User: What shape does this take?
Amino acid sequence: MPVATKSFALPVLLLSLAGCGGGERIEGMELTLGLTTARAREVPEAAGARTLVTDEGVRATLTGALVTLGKVELIPCEATGWRRLWNELSPVGTAWAHSVSNALRLGTPHVVALGDADGGVLPLGVMRPPPGRYCRARLTFEPADADAEGLSSAAQGAVPVDMVGLSLHVRGTLAEGEQEFEVETRGTSSVDVLLEGLELTEDAPKAARVFTLAWDSWLDGVGPGESLRNVDLLGNVARSASLQSAVVP
Amino acid sequence: MGTEQPFSGRLRLSTTLRAWGHTVGQERVDALRLREARMDVAVAYAPLPWLFLSATLPLQAREVRSVSLARERGWGVGDVEVSAKAFLYQDREFSADHLFSVLAGVKLPTAPRLRAEDGTLLDLDTQLGSGSVDPLAGVAYQHFRGDWSFLVSATGFLPLRGMLGFKAGPSVRTTLAAQYQPAPRWAVRLGLDGRIEAAADIHGEKEENGGGVIGYASPDVLFSPSTDIVVAAGVRVPFFNRLHGRVAPTPIAMMSVAYDL
Assistant: This one.
């Protein structure tokens, strides 16, 4: 072999090897989550689309409502007893700021608007948890940060609302339209929703769940002549959450 | 054996097989488990009695698995390292007892950017190279005394920014080793390897896990079936881990063959 060829052989070999390589990706567990709204009670007589009757018998109509779902956390079935206590005492997830997502937490806040009609599903995102059984999902409603999804549509509605720092904005009329109201809250409220035996395995790695917010119970506790300020409205929103069904959002 | 003294015209071909891994993050929450098998193919040549030039080409295969059992696999050529080692001092021209050398080199971004079947880039953890030019420099001292030999070395790495804004932290790797050769054909070696490193960052945002100090105990057995061949096998057992965050390294298994032409 000539000397010149010899001296170039190694660099040429290295350069041609440098193009060699490959890769592959194999999907793991995936849980797709969504959120919708619905009535939980029978439609009152002569009711509009957003008319409700509270558990105290007061008739009301919502003309607008926005609520911030801050995060969704998956709770494995085995997390009971001391482990559950530990999780609940943990400071993780109580911070004001946009929480970090991980395999068991969807930390992207969503501002959910109560639209003109029920049935539409808002995609919340895809979680990639470890395989296992999950008994509950903890939904936390908390003030929106500046990165929350849905802020701009809330600010561009018929009645623009800046939801940054707010966990709930609700407005409407009470008692057959005689008394208008508008309430905003900055609190935090969590609820555990039963997942009815959600199990992710290597044989069944994908699942989807949709949570439902029953908006016609949001004003529960409001009695005749009572102010909405005395009612835990955000708690009502949290307690209205349930699992819809195993459908793809 | 294995740490022979230089002489002009020496050409050495060697290959080192290594299997290693680590888990970064919290189990069942955000842990990433990395496993890698690699083969470093190296050639070293001494054009002068005091100068060793070497190039190392790694062939790697790695898998990164998340808690969801999602996996990424990458394989191919890694980052080539070229270096020059200059022996600045030796007490005798032949069969020296004391050798002092300095090392300078660079790791080059020769590893291809690996993609999945759909054309999307694999995660940084799955990439075989950093995409950066990483200068390195070090010093070493060797002492030979009868059946014993000793090595003390320190090598510093100063990585530059690479692909996707990643920049490994500057690091220093140290080795303190003693070797006993009771027979011409075999020897045993025990080393302590250490690594001190700053945390890596991506676009200036520091990685939560990594950076700190880690120490390995490194026992090896060396065997020379013929004059020009040395086979070594050993393990690097992490015994001191002060890396920040949650980083759990596995022991590193290694085997090497060196052939002097």
